[in-house]
Specification:
Number of helices of chain A: 13
CATH superfamily of the largest domain in chain A: Isopropylmalate Dehydrogenase
Structural class of chain A: alpha/beta
Strand content of chain A: 15-25%
CATH class of the largest domain in chain A: Alpha Beta
Distance between the termini of chain A: 37 Å
Shape of chain A: globular
Largest interface: A-B, 64 and 64 residues
EC number (chains A, B): 2.3.1.274
GO molecular function, one term (chains A, B): phosphate:acyl-[acyl carrier protein] acyltransferase activity
Strand order of the largest sheet of chain A: 3-2-1-4-11-10-5-6-9-7-8
Number of domains of chain A: 2
Radius of gyration of chain A: 20 Å
Pfam family, one (chains A, B): FA_synthesis
CATH architecture of the largest domain in chain A: 3-Layer(aba) Sandwich
Oligomer: homodimer
Catalytic activity (chains A, B): a fatty acyl-[ACP] + phosphate = an acyl phosphate + holo-[ACP]
Keywords (chains A, B): Acyltransferase, Cytoplasm, Lipid biosynthesis, Lipid metabolism, Phospholipid biosynthesis, Phospholipid metabolism, Transferase
Chain lengths: 337, 337
């Protein structure tokens, strides 16, 4: 298997992508070659600086443009055909690599994945499946931001794609799907989710019904479907709450010597919770619905996060997620012709 | 001033509302009379059980129906004309009380407030302003769930109403308003927020632009406007995240004796953060845009939360929030005729 990594994607690039690559060379033995895209000289210098070995498993594919946060996703793909993300996605399109990982501009990754690779047949709009830690394992918020103006039909496709992903990658026999809403009662919600509720009841998924914030963490759910605006805002709000809690706790603890000593004794507990809530262990969010494996990493991805994003990409290829999604979507579409 | 409390509203009623009333009798000296609505015998028994004094400041107004969580807001108001919430709102409508507080069914409070009291002139749809703890004070999420299918025009009205509330109740000279979005760049968002962004730039408020999850806690903001679906989901997600973090921390701490000892030494820090993040200190969320003061409490309101909700009601009356909102909305409407 060959995977391509956008070495210029993320807030600390190429340092963290190359650091993640170095870890992946040790842990992901099934990947025979890693392509990395970006300016050749800079990447070679970074590989040397971090003393990355196994160079025979690495190939630099030059890309000299950089997508910045002010480019729109469309501009990034149309006007910067030689950027690290477009060159990376093109390697998947050409069949040279089976998966692409980028922690760069999310809109650019979504647009490049959608326009350059194309959508799976029957998929109207790809969606980002973003993992959240849950009492029972992991729950995917889908869509986490690819499609801010989703229709009810899109939400049904997200349910099918997310369910298929959970089934084949996580080995869940009958993945549980919830619909993000403002209450549990069937009649709740805005026009979009009311329509989606009716469609999901008839869809070929194990639909549990409406769910709320607390269900993200407490309920045995594999997928929570929502429009990309809601999903993105929810994810960022959860992340922000966790950060605010830790900041306030830290400040309170530092206000007294006894508290500081106490916190020192309990520090492993804090570390464990931080780790559990951290994006790092999950690594990346698959963009489901495109003809190829595209994994989107957090902008602030650490080397460990990048390594895990590469692992997520590898797993999607190994478990043949896309052929399975294509089958599930096709049967659903034919059943409803 | 006279305030009416829905004594049957909330998960633990009438116990917690009566407990809150008992506290309010001590702390809210400007309130000459508290009306409480609910079944007469049950309320008298609860007043006796909790040994509530100053009975001359309390008047029970009988209401024998109870709104349950499966009633729709509209049914609750239309079909249960003798419920504790409709009787309570009616006292405001009749001019006997200046504010009403309920920790019961939110949809019923919104519907009763909107249909029975009517909207302020120029207000298309009332919105719930829900307080969130912020590094710089408090930030209101508006709308937090009254109106799940808001239009851009509604969001502008929320901005004006929230801004007026922050100005008169919190003494903020130029309240800062943000628009909840998926990114900070002007071009981000779904169709609704893109349209609202343009209107907010021209509205008579101190509009800061798009904001994201972390801004809720970190940025000096008085109001974050959003549609009621997004606002409700964000609030519940933040609450759920905080709860999950505490649950996980507790579990990690209890797994070792040393950690437990440490946490005991640092326990005041945990308490301070819990208190800061707790809804209890804020008490209630004003329903802005109706002809009367309606304060919506959390279903799980404790006696302290109820007392604070009564305080929020009192403050809205004292600071003449509604006349000020009416002036602000009217000037805006006339300026755009």
């Amino acid at each position: 298997m060959k995977i391509v990594l956008d070495a210029m994607g993320g807030d600390i690039a190429p340092k963290n992508p190359i650091g993640g690559l170095k870890l992946a060379l040790e842990t992901l033995k099934d990947v025979e070659k890693f392509y990395i895209t970006g300016p050749k000289d800079a990447l070679e210098a970074e590989l040397d600086a971090q003393r990355v070995g196994q160079r025979e498993r690495i190939e630099i594919v030059p890309a000299n443009q950089v997508v910045d946060m002010h480019d729109s996703g469309l501009d990034a793909v149309r006007k910067k055909k030689n950027s690290s993300i477009t060159v990376a996605v093109d390697l998947v399109k050409q069949g040279q690599a089976q998966a692409v990982v980028s922690a760069g501009h999310t809109g650019a990754s979504v647009t490049a994945g959608t326009l350059m690779l194309g959508r799976l047949e029957g998929v109207d709009f790809p969606g980002i499946a973003s993992p959240m830690p849950n009492e029972h394992g992991v729950c995917y918020i889908l869509d986490a931001g690819a499609n801010p103006d989703a229709t009810a039909r899109h939400l049904v496709q997200y349910a099918i794609m997310g369910s298929t992903y959970a089934q084949y990658v996580h080995g869940r026999s009958s993945p549980v799907v919830g619909l993000m809403n403002v209450g549990e009662e069937d009649s709740k919600g805005n026009l979009l989710v009311k329509e989606a509720f009716g469609l999901l009841k008839k869809a070929p998924v194990n639909f549990k019904g409406n769910v709320e914030g607390h269900d993200i963490f407490e309920t045995e759910l594999d997928v929570i479907v929502c429009d990309g605006f809601t999903g993105n805002v929810v994810l960022k709000s959860c992340e922000a709450t966790a950060k605010a809690m830790f900041t306030w706790l830290k400040r309170e603890i530092e206000s007294s010597f006894v508290r500081k000593m106490g916190a020192l004794m309990a520090q492993e507990a804090f570390r464990a919770v931080r780790k559990r809530g951290s994006y790092e262990s999950y690594g990346g969010s698959p963009l489901l619905g495109v003809k190829g494996v595209v994994i989107i990493g957090h902008g602030s991805s650490s080397p460990v996060a990048i390594m895990n994003a590469l692992r997520v990409g590898m797993e999607a290829v190994t478990h043949e997620v896309n052929p399975h999604i294509q089958t599930a979507i096709t049967s659903h579409v034919f059943a409803h012709v």
